[in-house]
Structures
1.
Amino acid sequence: MTISAAPARSVLEEACALAGFNPSGAEPVRIAENEIWRLPGKVIVRIARTGQWQAAVREVRVAQWLADNRVPAVRALPIEQPVEAATRPVTFWHELPPHENGTVRDVVTLLKLLHQLPVPDFPLDRLDPFVRVAERIEGATSLSEDDRAWLRHRHAELREQWEHRPTGLRECVVHGDAWVGNVARTAGKPPLLMDFERVSVGPPEWDLVSTAVKLTTTGAVTEAEYAEFCKAYGTDVTEWDGYELLAGARELRMTTYAAQYAATRPKWRTEAQYRVDCLRGRAEPRPWHWKGIM
């Protein structure tokens, strides 16, 4: 089974009718857990999964809150949204000009702005580092049952440790998935923060760990880049007593994400198995060299 653009077009058309947009000429940008479409007129349509209504509401509210606080970020269109089409929440956004992924420096610059803001007066969930991990493990059918049982055990172990995590920095609003792929760099303008699906309240270390594991786990960030990141933020999360816990949670998320896709996309099966092998001690020592999924 592969995910194609065809099944969501009817959802797109229904959502556009509800919101007052013309879906003619719509083009798929990215078809994954969430489906992203581009409309003529520089409008981006985001179709979320069934059951994610509250998350979609939160994304739109967060976008407006960031705009009110002058944090550079993608902007939701000023319309009544989300709308619901075929049980799926759909939101509408301003399209960005041509852009590329941000840098490690861009990530820390935006995190400092975000983490300094007071918690807003609309509801935000508490941070859960293990959102969808259980579902991803059950859906990782390309893995052996032994590997999936190990992942379940690791998940339970980390959840237990999370409940007794060490005290760290003052809790604040966190992005939840802060990495260079969720920062857009456009010509001549400040970098922009994107993807507010996991914005919540919790320890800021969770956002910092996203970059730290790129050094300690995957080697995608150089020591010089990471040193600049720490200097700009003012702390090195790898020196915190809870680092191994949060890094372990990140590694588990990255592994189960790959395994979920490998179940329906055979080209990712080698990568998913490699990540499991790394976690289980069947590969070379860290840092590993994980390939990007999607």
2.
Amino acid sequence: MTEHVAEHVARDPDPRLLAILVCPLTRSPLRYDRAANELVSDSAGLAYPIRKGIPIMMIEEARDV
């Protein structure tokens, strides 16, 4: 396993956490985008970054998708 792949495997969010997190703007469910290491709100068209394993759930930190 390469370092880059191992890094993403170690950072995958806990499925229990994903089950309770919602978009702070729309309160809709999020999906995990492993390639980008982001939580995506399809209803808001926003992607929230995950930094050092911590989801950054601030609208100001999200990027448009």
